[in-house]
Write a structure and sequence with these properties.
The complex is a heterodimer of chains A (512) and B (497). Chain A folds into two domains: 258 residues, Metalloenzyme, LuxS/M16 peptidase-like (Cytochrome Bc1 Complex, Chain A, domain 1), CATH 3.30.830.10; 185 residues, Metalloenzyme, LuxS/M16 peptidase-like (Cytochrome Bc1 Complex, Chain A, domain 1, 2-Layer Sandwich). Helices cover 47% and strands 16% of the residues of chain A. Chain A is built from 21 helices and twelve strands. In chain A, strands 1-5-6-4-7-3-2 form a seven-stranded mixed sheet, sandwiched between helices. The C terminus of chain A is likely disordered. Chain B has 497 residues and is α/β, with parallel strands linked by helices. Chain B has three domains: 37 residues, no CATH class; 203 residues, 2-Layer Sandwich (Cytochrome Bc1 Complex, Chain A, domain 1); 195 residues, Metalloenzyme, LuxS/M16 peptidase-like (Cytochrome Bc1 Complex, Chain A, domain 1), CATH 3.30.830. Helices cover 38% and strands 17% of the residues of chain B. Chain B has 17 helices and 14 strands. In chain B, the strands form three sheets. Chain B has a six-stranded mixed sheet with strand order 1-2-6-3-5-4, with helices on both faces. A six-stranded mixed sheet of chain B has the order 10-12-8-13-7-14, sandwiched between helices. In chain B, a hairpin with a 5-residue loop joins strand 1 and strand 2. In chain B, helix 2 packs across helix 5. Chain B is globular and about 65 Å long. Classes of the chains: A alpha+beta (512), B alpha/beta (497). Chains A and B meet through helix 7, helix 8, helix 9, helix 13 and helix 17 of A and helix 1, helix 3, helix 5, helix 11 and strand 12 of B.
Amino acid sequence: MRIRALNALLGGALFAALAVALSGQDLASLEKRVTVKVLDNGLTVVICERHEAPVFSFFTYVDVGADREYPGITGLAHMFEHMAFKGTDKIGTNNWPAEEAALAKVETTYAAYDRERRREFGRDVQRVGQLKKAWEDAIAEAQTYVVPHAFDEIVEGNGGVGLNAFTTSEQTAYFYSFPSNRYELWAYLESERFLHPVMREFYKERDVVFEERRMRTDSNPNGRLFEQFQGVAFVAHPYGRPVVGWPSDLQAFSATDAQQFFDKYYVASNMVVAIVGDVKAAEVLPIVEKYFGRLPKRLKPEPLATVEPPQRSEREVVLREQAQPLYIEGYHKPSALNMKTEPVFDALQDLLSNGRTSRLYRSLVRDKKIAAFAGGFNDFPGSKYPGLFVFFAVPTPGHTPEELRDAIRADVEKLKKEDITDDELNMIKTRAKADLLRTLDSNAGLAEQLATAQALFGDWRYFFQEANRIDQVTKAEIREAANQTFLDSNRVVGRIETAQAAHQMAGGKETR
Amino acid sequence: MMPRKSLIGLLVVAFCFSCLPSISKAQVTDWKQIHFPPLNAFNPQEPRRVELANGMVIFLQEDHELPLIRGTARIRGGSREEPPAKVGLVNIYGEVWRTGGTKTHSGDELDDFLEARAARVESSGGIDSTLISWDCLKDNFDEVFRVFVEFLQEPEFRDDKIPLAKNQLSTGIARRNDDPGAIAAREAQKLGYGADSPYARQPEYATVAGVTRDDLLNWHHTYVHPNNVILGVVGDFDSKAMEEKLRAAFESWPKGPSPAPLQALFPGPKPGTYFVQKDDVNQSNIRMVELGARRDNPDYYAISVFNEIFGGSFSSRLVEDVRTKKGLAYHVGGGVGTAFDHPGLFQISMGTKSGSTAAAIEALYEEIDGLKTKPPTEGELQRAKDSILNSFVFQFDSKGKVLQERMSYEFYGYPADFLKRYQAGIEKVALEDVQGVAQKYVHKDQLAVLVVGKAADFDKPLSTFGSVANIDIAIPPPPNAAKAATSTNSGRQGAHR
């Protein structure tokens, strides 16, 4: 029920996000515990046995996010994600036939109201009021058939923890953890929500999502900057649009739109389900097949056609805010699916950002003392399509975004002119392997990794093999990538500059 | 080969427990038709406790899943014990302890040494303790552990890293009013405990500036003695061999004084409505606070159940009514907060658009009144207990978690089997206990109600709810730079020096 992408970057949590690798021996041990099966309807199941405690976690990866939206329905992928917690035609209703009819009426009344209120001229205000009333009455009627929080209650009452979901620019994910004796209940619930979703309480939930937008974007200076920054960086590709949606669209799209979006993209062949924990593949797989096998077999949606055209010149957004300054600069790069370039960018991220030996920490934080935090991060806002390598720095008091810019550029120039040292390269390679190990002791973390790798790269082993690919990276490749990527014309800059509020200028004592 | 769909029913019966009548060809139409066996008995492995003659307590938890060894030392004494004029000291200490290096190696040298081995040694300062930990591949254990011991016994707090740590902390001060959620969280804490309470006070430029290297050394010499240290080690080792290594490292470490624990007062908040003006937002952050309870309070179990019902889960009253039914919030929740050795805070927290601020406060009051007019039901009680008891296994589903719990109980002087008692305690909670929690801990007339937002856009003025006290969150400039700060307002953007 949340939106990832920019949070991770802002929280500095990206350190962990891509830090994965594994030695051949460990991969072999994992091979023995992993079972993969593509069901007849095209849904892929990945099961990893890990018998540490009588619990399991799952991660459902749906290969659709904000990437499949278009102007008018931005935010719809995320909106549907919220609806997937509203129950089904059996869970959350006291009379499905009556509720179904009532929900249909909500849609017809909404369509009439929405058309009239958005009429550009000749709008009849009184008529809008009447249509709105009819719509609200229909909602009130539909509400009488709702059994509140039924889905959440079943999951939580059965000991489910970490019940949540998120939507990004390219994926929608659902997850929680359960005691291991309840795997059949899980298989039923998780398949049922995608077999018989109900657009129940849709318009109230739309208000909830709008509050989410206010919290993450509108009322947060960093959120405001990132929304503008993405919009400038991508003029054609959907990576440029906010996952949460534009305010106008959040007040316009309908439950019918959400249902259509679901019908098109939530097809079995577009989904991967990973289960990790104290389960036996031989027992769980038939159950998964029994329940998830009910999802209809339909064609996987055609790939996205839009490709971001090459950037011709540098772009910049500057926000003047009643907040402290911030500096980001991004450079377009190939997608993570490019197995030749991705390990090089992963190595660059590690070199620039990982810990106190990283280049940006040492130069901006330790030596120049102009930043409290500085790093360079791969694959923003996503991995599936060509994205950005983003430098991000938080100035210490009294220092300006310009100083951060100059210092980052100096480090970038050094990368272009000089090879990194042998010690640095060895450190990157050693860390890639060790950091991967550290990701293996959590059912939930493993489930996310396996599902993501299987969905994006068609192979659950992707992250485990990335360490080996990083191990092959050369100094020359790093320098070459820097020279090809970090170009003026390929750059997008975002800055927050401080504009003092009137009452703060007056000495900070005035209150209203 | 996996069975074909039509054969699933037959084959699965053979795979599964005998009590799974639901597995058949027939479509399941109701989740209640799905039966499952009781959860397999699970006795989590307890760590081994070793107490050295000098008072140091060690827990050893073998975990052979991955070739890693990690350890954490928790040391008594934290920011609640720092002097009011030096708030921020423990934060700086926690940073410079590591970056300032040891007698024989600078922090930078150790950065290179550790990172080349993909190992970490990190330190930090907390409210009631400081932590220093390591995390390494087991093959590097001896050399990394040596570094860890150096830090524990011979830290140097080199001067050049102190301004760096102060810089970091000052950045936090300068930025603390940028995010309205952070403002609300901080000011609610100050309302609940008192602005000067050791549990709520904030570092300022002046208090940070006053911290010296002597303060850091002094802190270390006051608190870091074996009798104040609890060390937990988890990973791929043999306990016997590990115990020998730890004894060799720490047995000769001389005992030191044990500073008296903090005595703090908890008068509770002054009831009323409080307002923080924040004009660059379109959402109000609302908090309602009063004092909560300690975990050794016999009410703790009923409190846990109450929280689950009231505002601590997706199926709780606050989420259902305020978020789902009214659509007033994305973020809403609350409950009676508890802590091990001091009262937590009862707190309700939500964000709502500026234009529904008063409506949201009214909705929250309605929920509080509802605890009396619609007291918790048997159904709610059952669901809450089911939720806590069925998810209980997640309290100890990894060896690391079991170790952490055990270390906490040791630190706060709780019984080692506190978690087991918790389970038994929850099972016994009756409806009247939960209703008792509502009466005892939730008082509409004793709440401090805080709103952070843009008053001009509110649906009704906050004065609707009584007199409003404005909270000034302007950041006091550094003492020796007050003149510079005023003169730079028009020139240098965001300057706070």
